[in-house]
Design goal:
With 177 residues, this protein is α+β, with helices and mostly antiparallel strands. 37% of the residues lie in helices and 14% in strands. The chain is built from 7 helices and 7 strands, in the order E-H-E-H-E-H-E-E-H-E-H-E-H-H. Helix 1 (16-26) links the parallel strand 1 and strand 2 (30-34). Helix 5 packs antiparallel against helix 7 (164-175). The protein is globular and about 45 Å long. The protein starts with a strand and ends with a helix.
């Protein structure tokens, strides 16, 4: 069961903040954080704020245009129970499109609907496989980590405006399991 949901309002210009406020009022587990002066500080800074405010021992990420299925953490819990020394668990995700033409365009570019590491990798070898792309890759939406990994890896790099998540996963793969 999900213990808390932290929403980070990152300077949206649509109705997102009102939707987030409504969710916070309806659900005890939901906490809304808004950057000072409603500034857009980017994904890295927003994720870092959420991590620092998290009260739970585990952290998972979900962007505004993505969603988790009801059983999202079922296998993750099993893996953490089986390997209590693991710092993180990554799982496959599936892309879903709102219209068939977007999906068709995606597939015509040779992209898969499934994002996953495509072979078993020992934790000590994960960095190299991610760096060189020799075993596929995982998405942050399919990743759950122990909050304690950030003590070893540091936080997201707020100076990066693209690939800050890939940079973080690489840092984690060097110091974590």
């Amino acid at each position: 069961e999900t213990a808390e949901v932290i929403l980070i309002e990152d300077g949206s210009t649509d109705n997102s903040v009102n939707l987030c406020k409504s969710l916070e009022q309806k659900h005890d587990k939901v906490k809304l954080l808004i950057h000072e002066n409603n500034l857009n500080k980017g994904a890295a800074e927003s994720r870092t704020v959420g991590i620092r405010k998290a009260k739970c021992d585990f952290v998972a990420f979900l962007d505004a245009d993505d969603y988790f299925l009801d059983n999202r953490f079922k296998k993750t819990i099993e893996v953490f129970n089986q390997y209590p020394d693991a710092d993180g668990v990554y799982e496959a995700i599936e892309a879903r499109f709102e219209n068939i033409s977007d999906e068709k365009s995606w597939l015509e570019k040779g992209k898969s609907l499934i994002t996953s590491v495509n072979k078993k990798i020992e934790p000590k070898d994960l960095f190299e496989h991610l760096l060189f792309g020799t075993a596929g890759y995982f998405s942050g939406d399919g990743l759950t980590v122990k909050k304690s990994i950030f003590d070893k890896s540091g936080m997201f790099n707020s100076d990066m405006t693209i690939a800050e998540d890939t940079h973080m996963w690489l840092k984690m793969s060097i110091v974590g399991k």
